[in-house]
Amino acid sequence: MSGPILELVNVTAHYGRIQALKGISLRAMPGEIVTIIGANGAGKSSTLMTICNVLRASSGDVRFEGRSVLPLSPDRLPPMGLCQVPEGRRIFPRLTVSENLDMGAFFRKDHEAIRRDKDMVYDLFPVLKERRRQPGGTLSGGEQQMLAIGRALMSRPKALLLDEPSLGLAPLIVKQIFAIIKRINEENRTTILLVEQNANLALQLATRGYVLETGKVVLEDDARALLGNPEIRKAYLGE
Amino acid sequence: MEIFLQQCINGLTLGGLYALIALGYTMVYGIIQLINFAHGEFFAAGGYVGVILLAWMAAQGMTQSHPWLCMGLALLLTMIYCAMLAMAVERVAYKPLRHSSRLSVLLSALGMSIFLQNGLMLTQGVYDKAYPTEMVSGLVTFGGLQISIMQILILSTTAVLLVGLNALVFRTNVGKAMRATAQDKVMSALVGINSGRIIALTFAIGAGLAAAAGIMVGFNYGSVRYDMGFVPGIKAFAAAVLGGIGNITGAMVGGLIIGMVEVMAAAYIQGGTEYKDVFAFIILIAVLYFMPTGIMGENVDDTRV
After folding, report:
1. What confidence category does residue B303 fall into, taking pLDDT thresholds of 50, 70 and 90?
2. Which residue of B has its CA nearest to A152?
3. Who among A54, A79, A95 is closest to B192 (CB)?
4. Per DSSP, what are the bridge partners of residue A6?
5. Each residue of B78-106: pLDDT tens digit?
6. Does the structure show a pLDDT above 50 at A196?
7. For B206-226, what is each residue's pLDDT tens digit?
8. Does residue B4 lie in a domain region?
9. Residue B73 sits in which domain range?
10. Is the pLDDT of residue B301 over 90?
11. A67, A99, A124, B182: which could form a disulfide with B30 (CB 3.0–4.6 Å)?
């Protein structure tokens, strides 16, 4: 069996003097869906931002396909196959939907394949095709989330980091988005690291889960086991 | 009526040149929120590099046999030279301050402006340098209207550059990346855009356009001077603010308006010639007072590029 595609070893990170991550270790195997759950401020988004080097790790190591990515600037990671859909989606508001997708493939030169991938994204999210000439900022929250995921897919990621894809969306849309995430994982064997406050949904989708509390991993288990864990049910699933 | 049309063409010529300079201000502001006070110096440097190249070509006897080719070549080489100069300036004076306060970068820009202007003075002297305007002579007559071939040349070159820039920014992937970087630098890094490179490119393009304007001003007025970057620089800045700073179309429109107003005021207001420089600044003050976001600006910090 091959090694993990993504691995964090004892990663710490700070915002100024405040320590956000206090030694996070986690791993994702190729093709796996791993979720990180935890309360607000537990360090979930900081973990993803540290993986992408937007937030610099103070110590520890982040390895992608066995290679340390800490010395690399953030823009070097998407070409390697590591891509993030950040919290708040961060659509380029004054680029059109189509242009936003083009930016996802910015570093690629295989124009034919890019066009096919764009059609694939439009198949996955037909509403984006309808709105392809509209500025990204004019889309609804759900459409923006679809665009953010579509933009990330344009880079043909091997591992996709998703930060709170359900945030602020109606339950029906959330269901739709989660179905797409599952489909991406199944069809392309894309590894998915999913950060969610909606622990119930995330654990139903994922194979394994990590529970974060104040910058530390306090629990790691199979998603099913976490779903059945009475403490987790009480703390994160609202029972 | 003929005089009015004549003035319209003069206004269009001048306005086009202001637009070319204004683009550099607005693009740099759009991408790193810096008012690049050294930008006028790229315009001046362009005027000088152009005349130096043309003098060299004349010494080789090339300008007599191929005047058009020489002018085109001088324009191209000057734009490339100033683009590289701007990238060097960005690397030395702005990039190290990327995470400092905006005031530090602004002061660095002012320092750069003084440095470049004095560099030009020390190497090229304090006196006017004459342009070989005899390279293109002749008039074209439309009805009662007389237009010099030089003016047609300037107008068409300006138009080509403005259309070309529009195509670059709105049609190519690099242009989209420039706009993406202006809108969200973290996100553009997360899709694999190297923002440092895009910022350097923005400086290069802005300086290239200003340099082209420098050469054309040299041909239009017959000479260049080491301090020629200052006043047109500030007027072009006024044009960028009028159009809505950070907005590319706005800079073009703003430049044309400022040029047109200046020419018309000089022609039709009593004593307007002496005070022609004042009008750009009256517009600047009025815009800042009554509509600080400019013509194309919508919200103060959300309408860039």
Report:
1. very low
2. B191
3. A79
4. A28, A64
5. 999 999 999 999 999 999 999 899 999 99
6. yes
7. 999 999 999 999 999 999 999
8. no
9. 15-228
10. no
11. B182
Provide the token pair at B239. 């044009």
Split into its structural domains, chain B has a count of 1
User: Across the interface, do B186 and A84 touch by the CB < 8 Å criterion?
Assistant: no
Residue A89 burial (C-beta neighbours within 10 Å; 0-12, 13-18, 19+):
buried
Taking the C-alpha atoms of residue B242 and residue B259, their distance in angstroms, rounded to an integer, is 12
- The letter for the amino acid at A26 is L
Contact (Cβ atoms closer than 8 angstroms) between residue B18 and residue B78: no
Q: Among candidates B211, B247, B213, which has minimal Cα distance to B13? A: B213
**Nearest-CA neighbor of B202 among B2, B26, B1?**
B26
Question: Is the torsion defined by CA of B66, B69, B75, B79 positive or negative?
Answer: negative
pLDDT digits (tens, 9 = 90+) for B236-272: 999 999 999 999 999 999 999 999 999 999 998 888 7
**Residue B298: inside a domain, yes or no?**
no
Provide the whole-model pTM: 0.92
Which residue reads 């069996």 in tokens? Answer: A1
Residues of B in contact with A104 (CB under 8 A): 191
Domain boundaries, chain A: 6-91+157-236
Of the ranges A1-10, A49-58, B7-16, B46-55, which one carries the lowest mean pLDDT score? A1-10
- Tell me which fold the domain A6-91+157-236 belongs to: Rossmann fold (3.40.50)
- The predicted model gives A101-121 an average pLDDT of 96
Smallest Cα distance from B171 to chain A, Å: 9
Instruction: Summarize pLDDT for A171-180 with one digit per residue, the tens.
Output: 999 999 999 9
Look-up of token digits 């083009």? A102
Joined tokens for residue B260: 């047109």
Cross-chain Cβ contact A74/B180 below 8 Å: no
Q: Is the ipTM of this complex over 0.85?
A: yes
Q: Residues 6 or more apart from B235 whose CB is under 8 A from it?
A: B18, B258, B262, B277, B280, B281
Q: Do residues B243 and B22 lie in contact, with contact meaning Cβ atoms separated by under 8 Å?
A: yes
3-state secondary structure chain B: CHHHHHHHHHHHHHHHHHHHHHHHHHHHHHHHCCCCCCHHHHHHHHHHHHHHHHHHHHHCCHHHHCHHHHHHHHHHHHHHHHHHHHHHHHHHHHHHHCCCCHHHHHHHHHHHHHHHHHHHHHHHCCCCEECCHHHCCCEEEECCEEEEHHHHHHHHHHHHHHHHHHHHHHHCHHHHHHHHHHHCHHHHHHCCCCHHHHHHHHHHHHHHHHHHHHHHHHHHHCEECCCCCHHHHHHHHHHHHHHCCCCHHHHHHHHHHHHHHHHHHHHHCCCCCCCHHHHHHHHHHHHHHHCCCCCCCCCCCCCCC
B267 in any annotated domain: no
Query: Residue B189 and residue A151: Cβ atoms within 8 Å?
Result: no
